[in-house]
Each structure stands twice: as C-alpha cells, then as structure tokens.
Amino acid sequence: MLMIRFCLLSLLGIITLSQPALAVEATKPAEPSREGIQFFESKIRPVLVNECYECHSLDAKKNNKLEGKLLLDSGPAMLKGGDTGATIVPGDPKQSLLMAAIRHESFEMPPKNKLSEQVIADFEKWIQMGAPDPRDGKAPELKTEKIDIEKGRQFWSFQPLNQSPPPVPRNKTWVTNPIDQYILAKQEAAGITPNEMASRVTLIRRVFIDLWGLPPEPADVESFVNDPDPNAYEKLIDRLLAGPHYGERWARHWLDLVHYADTHGYDKDKLRENAWPYRDYVIRSLNEDRPYAQFIQQQIAGDILNPFSQDGVSATGFIVAGPFDWVGQIEISEKLIEKKITRNLDRDDMVATVMNTTVSLTVQCARCHNHKFDPISQEDYYSLQAVFAGIDRAERSYDPDPETASRRKTLQTFLEQSQSQHQRLDAQIRKRGGGKLERLEAELKRAMNAKQGQGVEYGYHSQVEKSDKTPKWVQLNFKQPVTAEKITLIPAFDNYNNIGAGFGFPKRFRLEVSNTSDFKSATTIADHTQQDYPNPGTSHIQTDAGQKKFQYIRMTATKLAPRSNDFIFALGELQVFAPDGKNLSSQAQVTSLDSIEAAPRWSRQNLIDGKYYQSLEFYTDLSELKQKRDDFLASLSTGEEKKSLQQLSAKIQQLQSNLKKLPDPEKVFAAATDFPAQGNFRPTKGQPRPVHLLSRGSEKAPIREVAASAPNLIDGLPGNFPLRDPDNEGARRVALAHWITSRNNPLTWRSLVNRVWLYHFGKAIVDTPNDFGKMGAQP
Length: 779
Fold this sequence. Notes:
Distance between the termini: 43 Å
Oligomer: single chain
C-alpha cells in the first residue's frame, strides 16, 4: 500500500508538466450540498486517507516524506495541486489530471495495481458533482527549493587546477621525488620514522605485481639483485612499462570502470561476439602510452575524429560496453511506451558510464529531479542524453587498415553517385511508360509471387538450442501403411540474420521409416550423420524409398543449423511420393520433439501444406513476360539514353567488383548509426532521436525537447555546444569529447590522477573515485 500511495500521488503533483494543454488554474467549487458531502465522506476521503496522506499531507511534510509538493489533506490544497497547478477541475473530469492518472491514460498510477473500476467511477462522479469537499481552510505555502548553481560551483572539485609547492620535510636525504616530500612530511608530523629501504628481492616483486599483475620469474629476480648499475631500478620500470603485460594488467582497471563484458546481460544474456576489439584497443592504447585526452576523445567520438584509423571505430565500444536489453530493443514494438522506457534506460547507462568514468560526476542522479547535492539540473542530464540520441549498441563493420578504409569509402561514394544517376535516368524513362508499364510490372510481380509459392507459411521450426548437438526430430504419421517411391526434403527460406535459402537445414541428419510410432524397429533410408551436409539452398533433396511400405517416417537432426548465437532445425516441406507420383504427405499428421508454433509463419502443419519457397531461376515461363517488359522499356528511351544507361551499369558493376576485391571488413560491438535491422531494432542512420526533459523521469510525461549540451558548472568552460548542424549526431559527441578533455575542465584531470593513485597505492586520494560531488569523500 505504501508503494501505491507513493507512486500514485508523487506523480500527481507534477502531472501537468506532461499535459500542458490540460493544465488549468484551480477553480473554486460551489458550496457543497449535504448529498455531496456524504458522497465525499463515504467514497473519496477513505481512499485519500488510506492511499495518499502518508506522502501528501502536512504530517508527511513534518516527517520529510512529502512528495511532489502535493498536499491532499485539505480541499484548497488539493485544488491548488503540486508544483505545476491544479489536480482536479470541479465539474470537468476530462480536464482533471487526476482522472487521466488513475485511468492509466498518461501515468499509470498505481503502476502495478490499478485502482478498481468502481473507485475510478466514484472519483469521476465526485468531480462531476463539483468536487464537494467539507475540508476548508487555506492551502499552506510551500517553499520551492531551487538548485543554486553559483553556490555549487564553489565546491572544491570544480575549482581550477593550480600548482602548489610540495611540503619541505626536515629529513632531506630520504626524499628522491616530490611525492616523497608529501609522504615524509605527513610521517614527520605524526612522529613516524620511515622504514628501511626495501631489498631488491622485495622491490622487484612489488613492481612486477603492480605493473604486470604477475610475480617475477626467478631469473628476473636474480638479474635485478645482481645488477651493479645504480639505475637498475629505473631500467626495470622502463622494461615493465614497455612490455605487453603492462597494457593487459592496467586495461582491466579501465574495463571494470566501463562495465566491459562479452555478453549482453539482462535475462537473455546473449554472447557479444565482437566486443573484444574494444578490449584490445584499451590494451593497445596503454602500451602505446597514448595521451589521455586522445584516449578519451577516441572512445566518445573516434569514428568521427579518426574514421580511417585502426582505433577510430573500435574505441567507441566504450560508450556501449554496458548491458543491452535484447527484449526491449529487438522484440518490443516501436509503438509501445516500453520502447521509450528501454531507450531512456539505455541512454542513461551511456551517460552514467561516460560521466562517472571521465569526470567523476553522478549526473544520473538528476534523471527524475534536479541533483539533490550537486549543481546539475535535470535539464543538464537530459541534454547529455541527447548527445547519444543518434547511436545504438550494435555490431558495425570497420577496416583496421587505414588505406583499405579510405579506399572503401571512395569506392562507395562513387558507387552511390553512379547508382543515383542511373536511378534518375531510369525513372525519367519509366515515367514515359505510363499505365501500360505499370500494368506490365504488376503482371510480372503477380507471376513472380505465384512462382515463389511460399507466401507467409514457411514450414516447421524447432525450439532454439544453445548447442548444435541437441537432437531434434519431426515425423509424419499416416493412418495406415503407405508405399513410397521417393522422399523429397525441401529446405525452408527465411531472411532472418541474412540466412535466406536453406534456413535451419541441419548439418547432419538421417531419414527413417517405421511401422511403429516409437521407431524402435526403424529402417534408415538416408544417413548423413557422419559428416556435415552442405547447405542445399533452394535445392530439393530426394531419396529413393525403394517402394518401401511404412506408416511413419521421421527426419532426425543430429547436428543443428547455426542461426544467431544459437542453433535450430527448420524444414520447408517433407513430401512422400507414391509409385504413381502422387504426394501422400497431406494425408499424414505431423508430430515432433518440439516446435515453435508461430502461425502463419511456422507450424508443424506447414510441413505438409504444399507451400514453399522456390527460386525464380527454376522456372522458364517468366522469361517471355520479362522480355515483353524489357522490350517496352527499350522502346521508351533514345539511343543516347540507352548508351548512358549501359555506361552507368558498366561503371556500377566495375565499382562493385572493386569493392568485392577489398579484404572483408571486421566487426566490432560499438556505437553504431547504421547496421542491419533486426526485429524492432532499427538504426537511426545518423538522425538523432528526440530527447525530452521528463517530468519525474517518466516517459509518459515529456515536458519539452532538449538540445545536446554539457552542464554549465565550471567557470570558463561553457556547456553549450556551438554546433553548425544541431542534428549532426557525430558533432554532438565530438563536442562532448572536447568539453571533457578541455584544459579548463579540472574534473577530468583530477579524476585521472585519483584513479592512477588508487590502483598504484591501493587507496585513492578521494575515496569515491566515481563521485567528486558533495556526497563524495573529501581529498
């Protein structure tokens, strides 16, 4: 009940933000009648008392539990509403935001347990009656707490960096570097004498574990202990810093910060096969001693700043290293509010990862309201979300070789130009064909569809498995024994994951016939279980049945077909032909070990419906119709136009041929604007999705669209981005990368030093590395 009270009425206090058209000033109700008062006391007050007062009353205010500045324990206060105006409009339920909320028309309140229809009807009737309420008095004035940006800017972490001289200890001989001065000064102040210098055996072990995460080999220890060079220690450090294990060790710290994983997380936790290029990028950057500013800029906008480098694209795996909601992104429809919720949470993770990691600010605390402690407004937070509104977490192709990347880009540009020229000229010619050409095209399309045959019924589809070694079977059960001359297997066709023809056809299988349904005394008529069977595409697989007589026939897949990180068995048709050539399959009943029954596409019954995909090239009777269409098209163009089309076609073919000669691009799971659509997961093509300031962080309560920017919390570092094209998603990320790595941004450099200190010494200068705000620790 407490959750119901909190969710229902904390949102009512700000609900007018989501519906400005409905926000109206409070209307004073007429003097309540005896019947009205009785209705309020019996139907309305009990609900308010039991469901609302704990969080929306003066007592709640005294206990610091008041939500949304909404008081419901007096008539005037209820009319006044919360931060943004009236909750009810006496006499007009349609204009009363309370009704929209409890009906789940905007907010869903309560979110889990909707009020009964009778209670909702009572509130509607009460408002129609003029909202009679005997509770009188004056609505108390509640102070509006506003975020004090200027005061917040005075916090230590937002102040400019400055050079402060290290303390001067009394013992000058012990000190070898400025850090020693700080340590020794503290020790002297506490009356502590430094330990003796560690032995070389101890020292090399410490250094190895610190820099490589590995103990030294005995030979390394012996060499270091016996090295007479007074710079032996410096040489050892240089050697370890130059070694590959240094990047491997220290990359782990960074990858932990960004939540790197090789699976997506969430309930399905699917394998993320191409996350590793980002991991290798981090290792490579550390081993190459890459400047930190460049390191950060590449991870936020490397695909824009260095598009033809090995690191440009793979570095952006940083932004998307967090979890991926497979169900929310791929399976949930674009039309549902759950899709907006998924994207909001997805961008929230991006914002939190980038800002927590690079500048140690908990900006995500401003998702539902202004930050309670730091000078970060809710609009600042959603403006940061807008920076990432044009990207998704997806696999994208890239060329690790800069020359190949540049060559591919050039060829693709020329190809697109040539295709565009060809399309314009072809459209100009086709326009002359008018209705006759439209009729010919329509006739050809109908013929092609008829020849394809499949329609919407694809065939049989097993349940999905994690291993290809899980056996699956499907069989036909005849009412009585039949005599068969041949058996025909027709593969399925499905463009899922760009598989197409031969979709789900098993790598290994066998065909058996039997006179008992349990197949304990079966006869094998085709055995392909010893080696992988080539994918047949659209070809039919025929097996001589030798006029065998049987009542049951079963196909068993002993090695399943790969799909997308999983394995299946699918088949378009299983045909049994009698000696007279008649297909007997339609007489049988189909059973299987399991099945995905997703009509009309997949069903056991589809295995014998006679509908299946057939390659158009299999037919010759379309050639005449195609020739007729092509001859008519040819008559519409001039000789010069025909020549231009031929030249453009030849150029397109040559460009496509040159592109095919390039090495296959590699893939990386990174920030992506263009990738193959999968279910309801479609790319933005670089066009940022609109991001709105959300009342209380609810996708059902958008207030206004926001522009991409960073917080204005540091003097001399404006957060507004001077973008020539605000819709250029890449420019948004570049602007944020430059804001973070600006020399005027003290947060970035303090955050870096703090993390390096933490991982070297085991204790940070600031004990909250991700939070340099007011609730974090002091240095």
